[in-house]
Specification:
Number of helices: 13
CATH architecture of the largest domain: 3-Layer(aba) Sandwich
Structural class: alpha/beta
Number of strands: 10
Bound molecules: pyridoxal-5'-phosphate
Length: about 300
């Protein structure tokens, strides 16, 4: 499946003589949106092949991946189990569902939750912890946090079309690194892949290396995480609202908003040669806006429009 590329027309781009397109992966599916669709595609086929009854995965309370897995389970005939970080959320499920739109929607899709403490959650890759879960939820297909595994990378290799390989630059937000690894793998060696981590930390470079991308045509742009995962600022929210007003393209505050903020700052700062053609991947995540707005309203801050 190929998503649409939309050209962005902003005075800045004309002034700097660069061309910018956004690849609307967010429009692939209302809930299995953006990179989630790519990451789940081959995993769902594998789960079917293994005759699994359920999909089990891991995530935070506002996770795009949790909601996408719940939606995929409903659409493709699997039960779903979400192992959610934060045992306090399980103390009063009704209250949690009232306050948290991501979990409310996942629950409506039929997802069963297992709320675990932060220390248990940290064991999400440990064999003892996984063995316990296998015992508790037999015949389940395990998908790692964020959905990244080799089959997810294979799916993300389908994001770029042949035509997209003519862009000089491709930009992508990063969490676990699976999406951008797929993009690097299928990119043209002459393209520059710019990776915008949504997290803070020097270990992030190693995350991508550990996924063994097949080329070295990528560079980390680490200045636009806004303090770390899930952290935001008034400036970021203002930017997201302004970008939507000017282009009609909504961005999420955790991944794509930070990437686009950083990309446009780089263009302002002359970090692209005249004649550069840039493709920014819209990896989705728009479901997270509602949850972020609940938190912003509680703090009396401007919300995402
Ligand atoms: C909307 C969105 N964009 C980008 C990413 C980053 O993807 P990855 O974890 O594969 O690096 C995520 C997380 O999965 C996401 O939800």
């Amino acid at each position: 499946m190929i998503s649409q590329n939309i050209q962005i027309n902003l005075p800045l781009l004309q002034e700097k003589e660069v061309v910018l397109y956004v690849k609307r992966e967010d429009l692939l599916h209302p809930f299995i949106s953006g990179n989630k669709f790519r990451k789940l595609k081959y995993n769902l086929a594998e789960a079917k092949k293994q005759k699994k009854e359920a999909l089990l995965t891991f995530g935070g309370a506002y996770s795009n991946h949790i909601l996408a897995t719940a939606a995929a389970g409903k659409e493709f005939g699997f039960n779903t189990i979400g192992v959610i970080r934060g045992e306090e959320l399980g103390a009063n499920l009704q209250k949690t569902l009232t306050q948290n739109p991501t979990l409310r929607q996942a629950h409506a899709f039929g997802m069963e939750f297992l709320f675990v403490s932060r220390s248990d959650y940290q064991q999400k890759k440990e064999s003892d912890f996984l063995a316990k879960l296998e015992h508790q939820y037999p015949n389940s297909y395990f998908v790692p946090e964020g959905g990244t595994n080799n089959l997810a990378i294979k799916g993300c290799e389908e994001i770029l079309s042949e035509k997209d390989k003519e862009f000089t630059h491709v930009c992508c937000a990063m969490g676990t690194g699976g999406t951008v690894t797929g993009i690097i793998n299928s990119s043209n060696i002459h393209q520059n892949i710019l990776v915008f981590p949504a997290l803070k930390g020097s270990w992030i470079q190693d995350e991508i290396n550990s996924l063994q991308p097949n080329k070295e045509n990528w560079k980390m742009v680490s200045d636009y995480h806004f303090g770390g995962y899930g952290k935001i600022s008034d400036e970021l929210i203002t930017f997201i609202n302004q970008f939507k007003e000017e282009t009609s393209i909504p961005l999420d505050p955790i991944y794509t908003g930070k990437m686009m903020f950083g990309l446009l700052k780089m263009i302002v700062n002359h970090q692209f040669k005249k004649g550069s053609t840039i493709l920014a991947i819209h990896t989705g995540g728009l479901q997270g806006i509602e949850g972020m707005n609940v938190l912003l309203k509680q703090k009396n801050k401007q919300i995402i429009l």
